[in-house]
Amino acid sequence: MTNHHTTRRTLVLAGLAGLAAAPMLPGLVTAAAATEGDVLSRDAVLRDPDAPAVGNPKGDITIVEYFDYQCPYCKTVHAELKQVMRDDPKVRVVYKDWPIFGGPSGYAARLALASRRQNKYLEAHEALLGVKEKLSEESVRTTLAGVGVDVEQALAELQTNRTAIEAALTRHHTQATAFGFSGTPAFIIGYFRVPGALDAATFKRAIKDARAAAAKGAK
Questions:
Q1: Are 160 and 149 in contact (CB under 8 A)?
Q2: Model pTM?
């Protein structure tokens, strides 16, 4: 029986079959003349200092994930992406909150980003993706407290740095929509746009194609 998840995954796999022929729009990320303030420049997409990153900081492939803490596919894909990082020590992953599932998603994204000052973003990220039910502001606070986040401090940090946090979320939204993504999760893998929930094997195929493109001098 074909369900929504199966159909979506089939479409993703079909798209990946021609991945090498579908690079990112060169006028966006790869423009050498992009200004420092251009949110679609390569550095803004791949090296934004306000976007948490894990994996090898000097990795030869960067994966940018646009996600929402209430997206069920994001929860599923998280374990697959962690497996990829364990198997491939040359991968770097950048997390970009794109809260499109309503108010609690935005609240979760903002508090998670505010927890970075406590060096607790990754704990917050893992915990929020592990919540099975729909989020509420109360459940977000409870979840973060459960992994050692000082919630009051995070709320204070959110107020202090609200401008920077809101600007980061705006950049993420601008990038995701400019790349033609219509939902979460969505990925930039090397020089390619890849929408949808991938399994570890499909991630690895995409990474292989991205490395091949880079070796051929894709810009």
A1: no
A2: 0.85
